[in-house]
Amino acid sequence: MYGADYYPEHWDRSFWKKHVELMKVYGIEWVRIGEFMWSVVERSDGEFDFSLLDEAIELLSENGIKIILGTPTATPPAWLVSKYPEILPVDWNGRVRGFGSRRHYSPNSKAYLEYALRIVEQYASRYGDVIDVWQIDNEFGCHGTTYSFGNEDLVAFREWLKEKYGTLENLNRHWGTVFWSQTYKSWDEIVFPINTPTFENPHQMLDIYRFMSDSSIRFLKSQVEVIRKYSSKPVTHNFMVDFMDLDYRKMARYVDFVSWDNYIATEEYDPLRQSANHSLMRSLKHQPFLVIEQQPARVNWRQVNENYESEYLAMWTKQAYLNGAMGVMPFRFDQIRFGAEQYHAGLLDYYGRPTKRLEAYSKAKSQTPGVITPKPEVAIFFDYENEWIHRINHLNRNFKYWDAIVDIYKAVKKLGYNAEFVFNEDEVEGYDVLIVPYASYISEEFLEKIKKFEGPVYLTAMSSIKDKYNWLTERMPWHLIDEFGIEVVDFGGIKKEKGYLFSQCVNSLFWKDELEVFSAKVIGSFENGTPLATVKNNRYYVASVLDENGWKLLLSENLKPRVLGKGYELVNVERNGRELTVVLNTLPIENNVYIDGSLHVLKPFELSFVG
Amino acid sequence: MYGADYYPEHWDRSFWKKHVELMKVYGIEWVRIGEFMWSVVERSDGEFDFSLLDEAIELLSENGIKIILGTPTATPPAWLVSKYPEILPVDWNGRVRGFGSRRHYSPNSKAYLEYALRIVEQYASRYGDVIDVWQIDNEFGCHGTTYSFGNEDLVAFREWLKEKYGTLENLNRHWGTVFWSQTYKSWDEIVFPINTPTFENPHQMLDIYRFMSDSSIRFLKSQVEVIRKYSSKPVTHNFMVDFMDLDYRKMARYVDFVSWDNYIATEEYDPLRQSANHSLMRSLKHQPFLVIEQQPARVNWRQVNENYESEYLAMWTKQAYLNGAMGVMPFRFDQIRFGAEQYHAGLLDYYGRPTKRLEAYSKAKSQTPGVITPKPEVAIFFDYENEWIHRINHLNRNFKYWDAIVDIYKAVKKLGYNAEFVFNEDEVEGYDVLIVPYASYISEEFLEKIKKFEGPVYLTAMSSIKDKYNWLTERMPWHLIDEFGIEVVDFGGIKKEKGYLFSQCVNSLFWKDELEVFSAKVIGSFENGTPLATVKNNRYYVASVLDENGWKLLLSENLKPRVLGKGYELVNVERNGRELTVVLNTLPIENNVYIDGSLHVLKPFELSFVG
Amino acid sequence: MYGADYYPEHWDRSFWKKHVELMKVYGIEWVRIGEFMWSVVERSDGEFDFSLLDEAIELLSENGIKIILGTPTATPPAWLVSKYPEILPVDWNGRVRGFGSRRHYSPNSKAYLEYALRIVEQYASRYGDVIDVWQIDNEFGCHGTTYSFGNEDLVAFREWLKEKYGTLENLNRHWGTVFWSQTYKSWDEIVFPINTPTFENPHQMLDIYRFMSDSSIRFLKSQVEVIRKYSSKPVTHNFMVDFMDLDYRKMARYVDFVSWDNYIATEEYDPLRQSANHSLMRSLKHQPFLVIEQQPARVNWRQVNENYESEYLAMWTKQAYLNGAMGVMPFRFDQIRFGAEQYHAGLLDYYGRPTKRLEAYSKAKSQTPGVITPKPEVAIFFDYENEWIHRINHLNRNFKYWDAIVDIYKAVKKLGYNAEFVFNEDEVEGYDVLIVPYASYISEEFLEKIKKFEGPVYLTAMSSIKDKYNWLTERMPWHLIDEFGIEVVDFGGIKKEKGYLFSQCVNSLFWKDELEVFSAKVIGSFENGTPLATVKNNRYYVASVLDENGWKLLLSENLKPRVLGKGYELVNVERNGRELTVVLNTLPIENNVYIDGSLHVLKPFELSFVG
User: According to its UniProt record, which residues of this chain constitute the active site (chains A, B, C) (predicted)?
Assistant: First the structure.
């Protein structure tokens, strides 16, 4: 699925033909359109006009270009917001978020839902199987819009709680409301803890994170149901990079395949961080995925929007392919001169001429045939709810769950192996190594899988210390004390301490357990001599957070280092019954890499299949 | 009064017996309970149920454990807030502070006051002399809750102003409202300066700080009055560390003894800063005080909540004793698994087992018999209103009054002497040295005491430059020009300048006076040659802010250095008619300290009585 | 016009005589009074009492002191705000800005306008030609008060838009509302984009900046019209340093001469930055201007308010003179003991004694006879709307238009030449060199002037890339591609890159063009080899932002360096038909400067006329 995102509504129809011709010249076979067109197709309440979209779809189809059509619910029009101001979301400070950009709606607003599902039905009934793939809305949760704290949200939250807890007694018990005199006598007394003098109830907070995620998922689901009435085409949604506000694992159940928007969101660009996101997206359904938006070069939303030379787009395309993508679609084909994204690069330039980026992309496309299925040797346990638990009332507010996991992912990759993420319900058989990092809450089901796993298991500090209501457990790691031969008897936050592991020096960060070691061997220690890492049989426990280097050292006992060099990404695949290693040079210069002892000289950004 | 804070309501009654047994084993003789129980004992409006509290008190009493009972007014229940939302406080931004944590009330809310005094009366009438000590509310002002800017606060503020000024003409004159056209024609025109385009009226601001402090004091007083109707037991309130929003000196008048909560609130832990707080608390009534909450190890409210090894709790207990405490109660006995403080350490662990902390505390208790009365050689003038004056519209917004005073306190301690704080109404006879630092406003009464004081007096920049309405005085230092032989003729903020004092190099910070020297000798200069310090007879003037080292140097002329070493705290006491020096090693390692020329080898955290 | 700002209303009448005597002793010939007196002269609605102002004016006039009278509209009284709370402005967060400081009004409030124009009419009709100059209001826009987002502002904004665009179709097209579905069907749907989830519409934003500036200008204009009914005296307004919220060029049309308030607003004091402001003020009407407020020494509104030795005031006075000022008036004559500015220095001290500052000022006055007309060799294009364009949705949010222009100004000055600012409507003939820096939008009129200009022209990155609706142009630099022989084909933000210019090393900052060079010569390159600077005939293009050193190097081809040394400011003037160079030593020490090869030894802060 190679193509690009396209906005016919931004142009006078006279430009369209030129655009489509260039698409054909450069091999753009797919376009995504329509996801911000609400005010174009519904000019005022009930006044529908699909002529523009009809014509665009017709022109594209005539020219053999396949279409992903986005439902336009991310941008309720001015006439709608003006009529029903209660549609607007309310932020963490209790302030209404205004009209004038995008995503200005709460998915719990009844008025909004009515109009949103009506326009979706208009789209679905008109274009049913005419188009090829449906995209629901656009980037749920972007700009913090997972969260809304208005009246309708509160009503919906109370309903959600009633369904979950049944009785107030039950809720009071699980929320521990006896603490600080917070006991509720009526459902109507429950409010969002906005601008509270001090720390919120951590059990309530976890339910708020769950409820907010569920609100978007419910909205996606209701759109899918409308579309299903009219269309047999696959449905997807564009997920985001480094994004943890929504439980994507849960949301992925309701789409036919996962798509995501591959942008560089960190201050420093790190190719393996993008790879971790690719793998997370692949792991959501353990199936190929689509990069439905690919950063082309500079964007417009950073403090400093640096450009990237055109060959980067080629490399990013190959990297997606390497990680199991079934296609890459740069955002966007046409370059816009106006609007909030006027500085965002496109594949054409402001004058409509093809850029070097378009050429590079077009060439990369020809080097990425079919879809690769990467073979991951390592399973890393991941859970969105754990990310929320780490946000709430924790011991070290500097710790970031996803960042710490990306460090582990990078360690595995640099050793020459591939990693995939596994969730509570996933099977873990077939992987060589299982890592369960910083997993505050682990379901009983998965605890059993850990015990049964035959290969080495790595467990860390902060794992299995919480129940599903966000209470700390009586003993830690809960249900795994015997398995690992240690008990956590005390703990505290740390900034950075030196430690020793296999006689090497490592950094321990963020957290420090005090262990009682029953039946394990100590293989690492903090500088003050207390245990940093232990092993019992092939069960490893790390009493802190390690950085990438620490993890490389720790894992190397079971993942023998295969690669020497830097600036590479490597994946093992099966192809025609043969195991192959595929390697990508992520550097813009020639790169010498030793794989399994043999030298490979890689050209700038080269993708190479190795023996 | 050795014991701990305890929360029976957080446990099924089946746990209580185990808790009480452990208390007895480890010598917990006192507990504080009940201060967050409002929704437990008043389940809904007027529906009282004291069974839990009754049983807990009975069980504790039966086992010989003495009880401090806290009134539960810090946490108005959900049913009350839901019924009277106007109870909620309003912050500096004009935003309501929500339900969902604690201290969510304004002490000026009529509805709140009615319900709060009703529940206090329920407590008082039921437990009158059954319990041993009363604690009023919990940590007045914590989380910025001294301040509330709602409608009822405004009404109360106008009443407070009417009482203070009598007429609007009087208020307009003292507030200088002619500046920027702020003259009031009606009391109802007076508002809180919320979100003003620029700087507020500094005279109004000082009255706001006073009014807000008075609001909490008035509320404390009205609770005490209710309790007095039913009980002859002493009343206290738990004051806070490094806390300047409330005039604790004024508040202390209404309690029988001062208690405070000894937590480490600064980024870096500094034992002598905690000592300064102990001394401030002792100085409020110049009587022994209670550490009613003692940080046990890690807390939960810092960015990074570091743990402390168990022996720290022993040392902190000894340090309190050294500074004149009559008891130390770690917060908290039981370790909670839920609630906003689930990560806060206790004396038990999550599984209910005694920790090493509990053992260390128990042992320290046996090393701290009776109550010491420290003998301070030095008096440091202190005034809460001056702290507020420094907050308002000053010349150098980086200057912090209390931090600068702690530096002086530490200098005195490190020289081997003890300091106490004196307030406007206090006598200063009996001290060897009097320091009057950064005291913008000094009462006429105290100005006279300065003049009469026979020993050396140290006065600094920013002292006696304001009247009690926060006007600058015509000449500076007001009423002390002749006494010190200098006049401040100009001044300005500085960042950090080098200076010279007794031919040594010192840092001058924050503020720089330009002096006219009449009849004093210059003993220090700024780098540009203007006078930094002068002396006339034994009257010293410092034209800037010195750090700890500068003060050590300056004071050493009158306080001959007695000690060599580091990591010690030293106090002189009288015991059985003999002068003794007591020294505490605040380091976790063996420590060599020379006192009056003799070597003392102190074990880690050792408390030692020296000849 | 030498004098000072004076506040008789802050003093009991008994002090006035002393003040006036001191004025006469020290040569204070002008005073500005009255601009914060609203509540003094209108004590409640319609209750006027001009006795104080009458008496003050009479006393000053009797003593031969000339008067600038300020209209008091910057401080609506409490009684007025209390009666019409809708007068209060609303900030960017949608929050009302409260009473209690100053500038608490929206110029779009109908109630406010009615009362403001009434008090102005009272002033004007009473003092018509009795006083000598009128100042309108005080520092329009100070403290961010250019911006108000209340209901009345919104109504006025919609009217402003109707007038500008005529039809909604027109507005929708120019605002590009098809982007993100923002199309408006009714004028009433248009709102201010307050607290939007993400980036606002950049075309709407530019109109908001224009509207807000116009609102203040319209208010100024309506005051001028009232005054003109009663007075023939000149009207001015006090503009501010480094201030870009208002289009001062547009506002300057409605005053008879420009005044400004010369304060140091940057973290580090830089005399040439103040000079740039002087020149900008002179350039607004290309006429002499008045420094109506001059920082005397310390102020009160900085984080750290450092003092300045008295001779600085003398130097600042000479610097204003050097740049074409017709007078300098320190703020303020009398030193206040109360109010929000109690720490701001005056020319008297708190006790009413003359300070060394007053002496220094008085002496400097005698060294600055008449009014100099500086002869600028260099024209720098400047435009307030471009400053707003740079604020909105740009590529590098760290770039600051005015700061980057000050760097160019300083480069010109340090080479030994003088610069003036030119605006779209200004003529450029007569200047030797024309610099057009960072000028996103350039009017067609000015584009023609660039082409016709015979001398060297310097154009930079980000110039002529926008149309007047803030759309990017199709090609860049728009209409100047042939003239400069290059086209910008791509660009991106940068932090800091090394570059080469005339074989020297330079820093390139913020922005990096990718150029296609048609018919120009490359004279500078980025480190990666792409062109940094080009020249075609005498048309220079710089593909990035240079710092002061880079500009000195680049300009030196056409502005041969005349001066060696540091800490000087130099201006060429014509005097009695002779060209003279005037040089000011801005350092408090003796300074050796070589001008045109000859050594000049300048005394501290000396102003010297050179051959």
Answer: 139 (proton donor), 293 (nucleophile)
C527 to chain A, closest Cα gap in Å: 15
- Concerning whether C385 is annotated as a catalytic residue, the answer is no
* Closest to B331 (Cα-Cα) out of B30, B37, B12: B30
CB within 8 Å: A99 and C490: no
Alpha-carbon C113 to chain mean position: 25
The span from the CA of C392 to the CA of A24, in Å, is: 36
Is residue A303 a contact partner of residue A580, using CB atoms and an 8 Å limit? no
What's the token pair of residue B607? Answer: 């408390």
Question: How far is A118 from A125, CA to CA, in rounded Å?
Answer: 10
**Record: contact B99-A196, CB cut-off 8 A:** yes
Query: pLDDT tens digits for A264-310?
Result: 999 999 999 999 999 999 999 999 999 999 999 999 999 999 999 99
Task: Reduce the DSSP state of residue C4 to 3 states and report it.
Answer: strand
Locate all alpha helices (DSSP H) within B47-150, ordered by sequence. Answer: 51-62, 78-83, 110-127
Q: Greatest CA span in chain B, whole angstroms?
A: 77
Number of C-beta neighbours around residue A512 at 10 A: 26
Catalytic residues of A: 139, 293
Residues of B with CB below 8 A from C81's CB?
A: 189
Give the C-alpha separation, A376 to A434, whole Å. 11
C282 is known to lie in a ligand binding site: no
Buried b (16+ CB within 10 A) or exposed e, B472-484: bbebbbbbbbebb
> Measured between alpha carbons, how far is B288 from A103 in angstroms, rounded to an integer?
61
Going along chain C from its start, the domains and CATH numbers come out as 3-366 (3.20.20.80), 378-555 (3.40.50.880), 563-610 (no CATH)
Least Cα distance to B197 among C81, C103, C86, C141 occurs for: C103
pLDDT digits (tens, 9 = 90+) for B160-216: 999 999 999 999 999 999 999 999 999 999 999 999 999 999 999 999 999 999 999
Q: How far apart are CA A147 and CA A155, in angstroms?
A: 14
Find, in chain C, the residue whose alpha carbon is nearest to that of A338. C471
- What sign results for the dihedral spanned by CA atoms B578, B579, B584, B585? negative
Question: Who contacts B191 (Cβ-Cβ below 8 Å, separation ≥6)?
Answer: B154, C98, C99, C100
**pLDDT for position B393:** 78
For the question of whether the overall pTM of this predicted structure is more than 0.95, the answer is yes
Query: Please, what is the average pLDDT of chain A?
Result: 97
When CB atoms are compared, the residue of B176, B394, B473 closest to C343 is B394
Name C547's Cβ contacts closer than 8 Å, sequence gap at least 6. C407, C506, C507, C509
Residues in chain A within 8 Å Cβ distance of B308: 492
Rg (alpha carbons) of chain C, rounded to whole number: 25
One-letter identity of residue C269: Y
The label of the residue with tokens 């910083």 reads A438
The amino acid sitting at B192 is: F
Which amino acid is present at B396? N
Please identify which residue in the block is written with the tokens 């009232």.
Answer: C226
H/E segment holding residue A319: helix A311-322
Cβ(B433)–Cβ(B558) below 8 Å: yes
Residue in C closest to A146 by C-alpha? C197
Helix (H, G, I), strand (E, B) or coil at C341: coil
Q: Which residue is closest to B196 within chain C, CA to CA?
A: C98
Question: How far away is chain A from the Cα of C252, in angstroms, using its nearest Cα?
Answer: 32
Residue C138 in marked binding region: yes
Contact C181 A100 (CB under 8 A): no
End-to-end CA distance of chain B: give it in Å, rounded.
28
| The two structure tokens encoding residue C172 | 């929708």
Please name every residue paired with C492 in a beta bridge, in sequence order, or none if there are none.
C512
Q: Cα dist. B511→A87, B494, B552 in Å?
A: 54, 5, 19
Q: C411 vs chain B: nearest CA distance in angstroms?
A: 30
Question: Where are the strands (E) in B466-562, listed by range?
Answer: 486-501, 504-517, 521-526, 531-536, 539-542, 544-546
